[in-house]
Amino acid sequence: MTAQPVNLHDYEALAAERMPPGPHAYYAGAAGDERTLRDNQEAFARHRLLPRCLVDVSGVSAATTVLGTPVSMPVLVAPTALQKLAHPDGEEAMARAAARAGTIMTVSTIATTRPADVAAAAPDAPRWFQVYVLKDRGVTRALVDEAIDSGYRALVLTVDAPRAGRRERDLRAGFSVPPGIDMPAVSAALGSTTGIDAAGFFSLMDLTLTWKDLERLVQDSPVPVLVKGIHHPADADRAVEHGAAGVIVSNHGGRQLDGVPASIDMLGPVVDAVGDRVEVLMDGGVRRGTDVLTALALGARAVLVGRPMLWGLVADGEDGAAHVLELLRAELELGMTLLGTPGPGDVSAAHLAP
Ligand SMILES: Cc1cc2nc3c(=O)[nH]c(=O)nc-3n(C[C@H](O)[C@H](O)[C@H](O)COP(=O)(O)O)c2cc1C
Ligand SMILES: CCCCCCC(=O)C(=O)O
């Protein structure tokens, strides 16, 4: 493909053409038969939006707030590891792209750039830090402290990955981290990062993690803590009881337990359980502005986008990632205009066909 991408699917195709097979397998792939990966997108297509007419849409704006932080749209950047596999500027380019789009970037524990350096790349932009709790709690603590000291505004505790899902594309492509790509968290725990694969990384995880650890993280944290990887409404309720300021309905882009429901299908039940107490976000399969509208209609405060941000980074670094976000914003604002909803807060269950 040579033409300028006009949607997120075009970026996906472009990245597939340009990336070496191993890194592409790692980014694109998911667990087992990839049923959940497919279902994340297909489930959006099972919902139908129901427009209302003769609403004044002259001032449509996607701007909103998430945990009190103003954002230009209810679309955030999901945490994804190893962004220097996409582009030499990695997380720093992603941070500048998110800042240009006026939204929040969530920086992974397995970033290829230190939390402080990502912050320095876009100093005024809001950003969150995603936490994997490693057996070596000192490594986790040091990264969290660095993020807090660098002004990150929230912690996102990922709870769906005590081990790597069985990622067969990685196995077939023989993917492991190439030389020259550092992951500060992994080098602090292991000394070296070259040759490590997903299973190798996740063997560093602390399998004793429970609700008590969430409570402790919340107590020790000067910033709000969200829990990412929630499927069950009862777990959402438990997360809130243990102090979470928000929950993210997510199946890790289908990369962990294959066969779990699409995130969009668990959003409604989670919103019913905790939506009156905390903000509920979701990720998985968001590829269109209309997907964002569906999530808002089911009660999400915002969505996060994972792979498409990486495809943008592969295609054109900071500019590519920024364009992915701009495409989503344009699609979302057009969708809001056609749906008859001037602001994100106007989108409700009444805008979905029964
Ligand atoms: C290549 C890749 C790396 C990821 N790394 C992380 C990570 O480090 N921490 C995390 O919590 N989730 C991680 N995720 C999951 C994303 O945060 C998110 O849940 C998922 O990508 C959303 O689905 P989508 O890719 O369909 O948008 C990763 C996903 C991908 C594709
Ligand atoms: C080889 C490093 C693997 C990091 C794992 C990050 C992650 O969450 C993922 O889904 O992949």
Which SSEs are present, and which pair or pack?
Layout: H1 8-18, H2 21-28, H3 35-45, E1 64-66, E2 69-71, E3 75-77, H4 90-101, E4 105-107, H5 115-121, E5 127-131, H6 137-149, E6 154-158, H7 168-173, H8 184-190, H9 198-202, H10 211-220, E7 225-230, H11 233-241, E8 246-249, H12 263-274, E9 279-283, H13 289-297, E10 302-305, H14 307-339
Parallel strand pairs: 3-10, 4-5, 5-6, 6-7, 7-8, 8-9, 9-10
Antiparallel strand pairs: 1-2
This protein binds flavin mononucleotide (FMN) and ligand LXCWX6NK.
Binding site for glyoxylate: 26, 132, 167, 252, 255
Protein name: Alpha-hydroxy-acid oxidizing enzyme
Organism: Paraconexibacter algicola
Describe this structure in a few short sentences.
Pfam families: FMN_dh. The protein is an alpha/beta fold. The chain contains 14 helices and 10 strands.
Keyword list:
alpha/beta, TIM Barrel, 8-stranded parallel β-sheet, 14 helices, 12% strand, binds flavin mononucleotide, binds ligand LXCWX6NK
